[in-house]
Amino acid sequence: MRWDGNLRAERPTFVSHLECSATGARYPADARHGLSDSGKPLLVRYDLDAAGQKLTRESLAARPADLWRWRELLPVRRREDIISLGEAATPLVRLPAMQRELGVAALIVKDEGRLPSGSFKARGIAVAVSMAKALGVRKIVLPTNGNAGAALAAYAARAGIEALIFCPADTPEINLREMGAHGALVERIDGLIDDCGALAAEAARDAGWFDMSTLKEPYRIEGKKTMGLELAEQLGWRLPDAIFYPTGGGTGLIGERPRMIAVQAEGCAPIVDAWERGDEHARRWEDASTVAAGIRVPRAIGDFLILRAVRESGGFAIAVADEEILGARDHAAKADGLLLCPEGAATLAACARAQRQGLIRRNDRVVLFNCASGLKYPLPELA
Ligand SMILES: *Cc1c(COP(=O)(O)O)cnc(C)c1O
């Protein structure tokens, strides 16, 4: 099949309806949605039996390896609504030196830094912007710590949709410039991402902007789930024993199967705190601070879904210090030649800590998610 085959083929979606993640109430597909009536995230449901008959391992293998090969399991109905910047399947990269050091059976990074706009936010935003276009949305608002805003700016530019982005004033400079380069309206806020979220909600309510905040619309997580599908396919449909996921809003963690390990920074660890207390919901983390901007999320609307995924998969939640994060980044860059972003480095540091604490086993096959390109972050000066 030719390189753009997935963008040209007419393929059915097997989406059946949407469902409230708290009450199970049903909502129609193919309509504009925010949160459910009870103020909780909506999840998209599919006729999986029918999809399974159409989407075989063989039919998948014959398609170009990108996000849109999963069309049957994505909500976008018409191919002309697809907004794509080339969401190629990301590679698995082994860390042989670190694997030896940690003494695990396999230590593999899924390197999401190779996606458009240099982070895995592209997956969710590509699908959500495509759905927004299909549903006639003309302007989108988003709170961000940087990468989601950069992705939205790019995809919105391509779709001819206006983008308004609220971000903390100390958002990494490169992200701000990316958003500007794509023509987005950017507002720097003296506050954290949940303060930005409140302003986005206000813009949605008062001025008709469509709110694309994490889990406040149902389609970003659908794009994000292709990460798990892709990983399963790449590993020959044999899942690893443990997945370390740097957790902010948690969209990549919900709905996974192996032991899911939520990794946070010690300076912003509301999910780890709730996990340790055995609570269903997390408390807002005050004075959140970490070098890993992508996981500086003091409060996540899907906290109960993250905690449920961790619990039901037999995983755990763990926090690491900024020094461990930067140490792990420098070590992997030197020992294995792979430059991780701080959030990705947090998963490596967490894996090392979990190993020391006996939370993972010697024969475990471990996957770490590197969610963005290491080049998007400040690097130490040349000594
Ligand atoms: C957004 C982001 C995260 C957190 O992802 P969630 O799915 O919101 O938990 C982690 N790392 C990076 C680089 C990010 O941009």
What structural keywords apply?
single chain, 383 residues, alpha/beta, four-stranded parallel beta sheet, 14 helices, globular, binds pyridoxal-5'-phosphate
Explain this structure.
The protein has helices at 5-8, 48-54, 57-61, 96-102, 121-134, 147-159, 173-181, 193-207, 220-224, 226-234, 270-277, 303-312, 322-336, 342-356; strands at 15-20, 26-27, 42-46, 92-94, 106-111, 139-143, 162-168, 185-189, 210-211, 242-246, 259-265, 316-320, 365-370. By secondary structure, it is an alpha/beta fold. The protein has a six-stranded mixed beta sheet, with helices on both faces. Strands 8-7-6-9 form a four-stranded parallel beta sheet, with helices on both faces. Strands 2-1-3 form a three-stranded antiparallel beta sheet, with no helix packed on it. A hairpin with a 5-residue loop joins strand 1 (15-20) and strand 2. The longest helix has 15 residues, at 193-207. The mean pLDDT is 96. Bound molecules: pyridoxal-5'-phosphate. The site of pyridoxal-5'-phosphate has 18 residues, from helix 6.
